[in-house]
Amino acid sequence: MTNTISQHLPLQAELAQTIGAHAQVPGDFPTAIAGLGFFRREQPSSPLVCMVEPSVILVAQGEKKLWVGGEGFMYDTSRFLLTSLDLPANSEVLQASPEQPCLGLSFKIDVQMLAELAAQSDPPPYRDVAERKGVGIGSVTQPMLLAFQRLLALLDEPDAIAVLAPLIQREIHFRLLQSDQAARLRKITAVDGQGYRIAKAIDWLKINYTSPLRVEELAARVQMSAPTFHHHFRQLTTMSPLQYQKWLRLTEARRLMLNEQQDASSAAFKVGYESPSQFSREYSRLFGAAPKRDIVALRGQRRSTDERQDAKIKSPSP
Fold this sequence. Notes:
Pfam families: AraC_N, HTH_18. This protein is α+β, with helices and mostly antiparallel strands. The chain has helices at residues 2-22, 111-120, 142-153, 161-177, 182-189, 194-207, 215-221, 226-237, 241-259, 264-270, 276-287, 291-314, and strands at 27-30, 36-41, 45-52, 55-61, 63-68, 71-75, 79-83, 87-95, 102-108, 135-139. It folds into three domains: 2-189, Jelly Rolls (Sandwich), CATH 2.60.120.10; 191-238; 250-318, no CATH class.
């Protein structure tokens, strides 16, 4: 194991250098390659509420942890994070500093591409592990790192992205199906499987989160009985369908208040709440502070971050 990790170090260092060049200040950064983003963190942080799409998160430097349903999933340069569903979670930075920032990438999974590749390859031997959840930790492999290295290199050759990026992205999906997380991914691609049906239900919830939710009707929509649907939904997401809808409503209300300057009552009604007081109670339970107080704190953090970024841009490191 030690030898394998040591073999990865030069590749990890090169990935970190590339990511650092494109993410020179703390934040999250999209790239010219669809589905690929970079992140940079310069200090440890307590868990922050987030939504994680079906994706691979690869850390080139530093260490992070994702909390889902009270369970922590730690990942670093030797372990990648895989999420096979849209999951409400809390993201924590464990290891980072201005001198040694936490650097990494997010790579969005194309479920259709994954299904095509899964149909063309033999499934791995059955492993009796917790593939029931929509999140897991996998071992980073050298072929996986080499594929990501080639993908990132295309950022310096923009004219080649349209032609070569889809080929490398396809290879990355294949490498994932060869990894120790293959069983988790295959559950989502199996059209007749429970994971696929729960993913379809989540897609519906994301579009219709403002509407009243009748679990029996949603279960019927994805061709499952209500008890079976409820059981598998909780198993994969660690929350009930109603809790999932509530999370969608509250995070969207937070965005409306923070980015669109809406007051708490307006945001509450817009996302489907009928009672501002109920909205305030549930918002406080999720985010740890009443809506107005939370938004004031977030705006203060944003101003502080912007000032640090401006200072860093004006005084770049030699």
